[in-house]
Each structure stands twice: as C-alpha cells, then as structure tokens.
Design brief:
elongated, 2 strands, mainly alpha, 6 helices, about 120 residues
C-alpha cells in the first residue's frame, strides 16, 4: 500500500458513487496523509477525516488484532516461528466460530464520537 494505491481506491470509490457526498475515515499512515492523496481527494470532492493519533478504540482491526493476540499469544511459548505463525492463523480461522459471543460484543460499530477532528474541506 502506498499513496498511489490510496489514490486508486479514492478514484474507484468516486466512480461507484457519482454525485454523492463522500467522507472517508482514515488512520494516520503517512501514505494516506501525504499531499498527493489529500489533493487528489479534494479534486474528487471526497472529504478525508483522520482518526486521532493512536486511537485503536476507533479502529476495528486494532480491536480484532488485540483479541487474537490475547487468545493466541499471551502467556504462550512457541518452539519455533512456524508454530507461532500457525497459532495466529488458527486463531483467525477458528476465532469466529470458537469465540463468536466474545467477538460479537467486541466488534460493534459503537465508537466514541468525533470532536475536534482535523478534516480537509471539500
């Protein structure tokens, strides 16, 4: 992923939703915040909203990764790198079945509200 691929994504989104107001929430990756991406979004009429620095509570993948680490890695010893990777893969594959109830409460769309967030004008 780089700034060009982000611009490609913005283009695809704009093509899928012509004439609609588009607002995209992004984390603070440098390739998303760069001038190229911001200017291209502005040209397309897409508003970019950046999450506050280090805000895992607002990013579902961060919640999920923390959960996987807790279930697969915490207080565990793996003899080699292969078994370490296998534990993570197994946790991801089996997690939705084995930990369905826990994940259902964790992976919700209930987020804190955005206040004083920097966004680019359209």
């Amino acid at each position: 992923i780089n700034s060009s691929s982000v611009c490609d994504l913005l283009w695809d989104i704009a093509l899928l939703h012509p004439g609609r107001k588009i607002k995209i929430v992004l984390d603070n990756a440098a390739y998303q915040r760069c001038h190229l991406v911001q200017e291209f979004a502005k040209e397309l009429g897409i508003e970019l909203v950046f999450l506050p620095s280090y805000s895992p509570n607002l990013n579902l993948i961060e919640r999920y990764w923390k959960f996987v680490k807790k279930k697969c890695l915490y207080n565990r010893y793996y003899e080699n790198f292969e078994s370490f990777c296998a534990a993570i893969e197994n946790g991801v594959r089996q997690g939705t079945k084995q930990y369905h109830a826990e994940l259902k409460t964790l992976m919700t769309m209930q987020f804190q509200s955005f206040e004083n967030v920097q966004s680019l004008p359209v």
